[in-house]
Design brief:
Mean pLDDT of chain B: 95
Low-confidence stretches of chain A: none
Oligomer: heterodimer
Distance between the termini of chain A: 15 Å
Largest sheet of chain B: 6 strands, mixed
Number of helices of chain B: 1
CATH topology of chain A: Peroxisomal Thiolase, Chain A, domain 1
CATH class of chain B: Mainly Beta
Structural class of chain B: mainly beta
Helix content of chain A: 25-40%
Radius of gyration of chain B: 16 Å
Number of domains of chain A: 1
CATH architecture of chain A: 3-Layer(aba) Sandwich
CATH class of chain A: Alpha Beta
Shape of chain A: globular
Number of domains of chain B: 1
């Protein structure tokens, strides 16, 4: 099956903390904005791909029922941020296979109302026989995804002599990006001193190394390439993909082989299969003009950059210094502010930003002549988006 | 503080012998009867050779700190009075790693590579947690 899919519409709700709206209302706002953006009608949408279901998000059947949709394809994953890429990939695969004409990727989140799921006694995800999938060990008081990012960064800092001051470049840069973005929640400048003086949450992660606990919704519409050509917006091509990585040498929040949980502790040399997204998209890494990633915790940005070979193992903490990942730098990262400073909409806020960049409508954050952008995560999955409508 | 408020391990068919071992103050490891390798977390088959023949053997209880953190946020009410407290991963001499905590740190931070030895903390009549102490 040939990959021939495009993003044809995007929409979002307002982003904020403690929003009074239900997740379903946030989703409805984003959905309406997305179909207007795409020039479609509600009934043109016949597939749903749901990244986060109830109770943090919304379930597919309730969305279909509440919005009066007629759905013939559904994908829904369990309550983890990690399935953001997966949800977009399933939408692309479904339209290519003819299972749906237009799939709406619907992500609506209320973290502020449902924050009990993010660690502590209400965290059912951590209560597995083997502990949680981010390393949670509730009997020892380790809970929440932040704990997994902390134990990985602690070892990374030991092995590669990286520092918290170096790590601060990630949230500081993304805050600079957020300050150009009227949708962003965080608009105050962040200094190195403020980062270092902020309270420690779970060592070595300080407050600003942890993403926002926020509310908001994003809808991304995906259609097959031949349909996308005739729609309102310039289609943004899903040019290449690679799937989530798993196995004993993997830990969700670490580079391969770092030595967390059962990882070998021997950083393996990157293999072609680890970075197959570039070949899948028919581009070189050097063609990529901006990198977008799931920055729930600032170390994840370092790990993702290493995953995809922008620098070598252990080099990312120094590589991100000096404005390299800022707008105008060598590889701008999360140009709308990401989960650290725009909002935590499961990464979909950054996927919307990629679409705006490739349409050339990113305003003061615009990457000049943006044509090839990469979404890639610390756990190794990726999608490359291109503005190359001629290749559809 | 009552131990009843503390989160307890979820115990099922695959890991019950591990926690039963802790109750008897033995750190038990599921070990493959064919290839000889121990693994964690306890699973129904050997992750290395996929054999079904798993036997439980007592570990030496020695290992090294492979990573650590100190928790400063009161996620669990039952741990509120313990903040800040440490959580570590230990690489056992047999190879597998497990998550535990260090006793006797008295305010110092753990260090990766420190040699440690298992100790047992009898939480109540039905639960004993493994912890580790730093070897001099």
């Amino acid at each position: 099956m040939k990959l021939d899919a495009a993003i044809v519409g995007i929409g979002n709700s307002s982003f904020g903390r403690g929003l009074p709206d239900s997740q379903l209302r946030l989703a409805a706002t984003a959905f309406k904005n997305a179909i207007v953006d795409a020039g479609l009608q509600r009934h043109d949408v016949d597939g749903l791909s749901i990244h986060l279901g109830s109770p943090i998000g919304v379930d597919y059947d309730r969305v279909a029922e509440a919005f009066g949709l007629e759905i013939r394809y559904v994908n829904q994953s369990w309550l983890h941020g990690r399935f953001v890429t997966n949800a977009l990939q399933h939408a692309a695969l479904a339209v290519c296979a003819g299972l749906a004409d237009v799939v709406a990727c619907v992500t609506a989140i209320s973290f502020t109302r449902e924050r009990g799921f993010l660690g502590g006694p209400g965290d059912v995800e951590g209560n597995r026989e083997e502990g949680g999938t981010h390393g949670e060990a509730p009997p020892y008081g380790l809970t929440a995804p932040a704990g997994g990012a902390a134990i990985a960064m602690q070892r990374y800092m030991h092995v590669f002599k990286a520092t918290s001051e170096q790590l601060a470049a990630v949230p500081i840069t993304l805050r600079q990006h957020a300050m150009l973005n009227p949708r962003a929640i965080m608009k105050e400048p962040l200094t190195l001193q403020a980062h270092q003086n902020a309270r420690m949450v779970v060592d070595p992660l300080r407050l600003y190394d942890c993403s926002l606990i926020s509310d908001g919704a994003v809808v991304v519409l995906v259609a097959r390439g031949d349909r996308a050509k005739n729609m309102r917006q310039k289609p943004i091509r899903i040019a290449g993909m690679q799937g989530i990585r798993s196995g004993r040498d993997e830990f969700i929040f670490a580079p391969r082989g770092l030595g967390i949980n059962q990882q070998s502790g021997r950083a393996p040399a990157p293999r072609i299969v680890d970075q197959e997204v570039f070949a899948s998209a028919g581009v070189e890494r050097s063609d990529v003009q901006g990198f977008f990633t799931y920055d729930a915790f600032s170390p994840l940005v370092l790990f993702a950059l290493e995953r995809f070979g922008y620098c070598g193992a252990g080099e990312a903490a120094s590589w991100v210094q000096g404005g390299r990942i800022a707008l105008g730098g060598q590889l701008p990262v999360n140009t709308s502010g990401g989960l650290l400073s725009e909002a935590h909409v499961g990464g979909w806020n950054s996927i919307c930003e990629m679409v705006r960049q490739l349409r050339g409508t990113a305003g003061p954050s615009q990457i000049a002549d943006a044509a090839v952008l990469q979404w890639g995560t610390a756990w190794g999955d990726s999608v490359i988006l291109t503005a190359g409508a001629d290749r559809l | 503080m009552s131990s009843l408020n503390r989160p307890r391990p979820r115990i099922g068919p695959d890991n019950a012998p591990f926690w039963e071992g802790c109750r008897c103050h033995s750190l038990m490891l599921p070990t493959c009867a064919e290839c000889g390798k121990a693994h964690l977390p306890p699973g129904p088959v050997c992750p290395f050779c996929f054999s079904d023949r798993i036997a439980w053997h007592r570990a030496t209880g020695h290992g090294r700190v492979s990573t650590w953190t100190i928790v400063h946020k009161a996620w669990f009410p039952a741990f509120r009075d313990d903040i800040p407290y440490n959580v570590v991963q230990i690489e056992l001499d047999e190879g597998p790693r497990l998550t535990s905590s260090l006793v006797g740190l008295s305010g110092r931070k753990p260090e990766i590579g420190q040699r440690v030895e298992v100790v047992f903390d009898d939480v109540d009549d039905t639960l004993t947690l493994h912890r580790f102490r730093i070897l001099a």
